[in-house]
Design goal:
By secondary structure, the protein is mainly α. It has 8 helices and no strands.
């Protein structure tokens, strides 16, 4: 059983190294310009080992994108601790979102390459803003739903 745990830990460690290395390559070069061969060479992994973890380059990109988006959403959730009620929380979430998206690596993965490659697009971030808007506009859920994509578009364009 100990070897199974060790094997699982090594597999998880390899997967995390792949994600971290791919993230850096894609932040610096973009999805199209970065090669799986370059990523694998840096990680020290053969192509067969790569396919043990990911079906293809796009699947690895999806894991990287999910990681970046989870970080942005976590920063936005940090706005829940803002004093002053739902409008202050919404303002803080917007500031945190723009700050996160000011990072060139986040821009490339989340705002440029991600929407071009993956159909999910902006849905999780839109939903996070809509939830804050619904708390700020408790009597107008339809208004909050209509405003969320507009606000997100403005934030990401900023």
């Amino acid at each position: 059983m100990a070897s199974g745990t060790s094997r699982r830990e090594r597999a998880e460690s390899t997967c995390q190294r792949l994600i971290a290395t791919a993230r850096r390559h894609w932040q610096e070069r973009g999805y199209e310009a970065a090669s799986i061969g370059g990523i694998l060479a840096e990680v020290g992994l053969a192509r067969g080992g790569f396919y043990h973890h990911f079906a293809d380059k796009r699947a690895l990109f999806e894991a990287v994108r999910d990681q970046v988006e989870a970080e942005v959403l976590s920063w936005m959730r940090g706005a829940s601790n803002s004093p002053g009620g739902p409008w202050s929380e919404l303002r803080a979430a917007c500031v945190l979102h723009v700050s996160a998206c000011a990072d060139p690596g986040v821009q490339r993965i989340l705002l440029r390459d991600g929407p071009a490659l993956l159909e999910r697009g902006v849905e999780p971030r839109r939903a996070a803003l809509q939830a804050r808007l619904e708390r700020a506009l408790p009597d107008d859920p339809a208004g909050a739903a209509a405003l969320a994509p507009l606000l997100l578009g403005a934030l990401e364009a900023a």
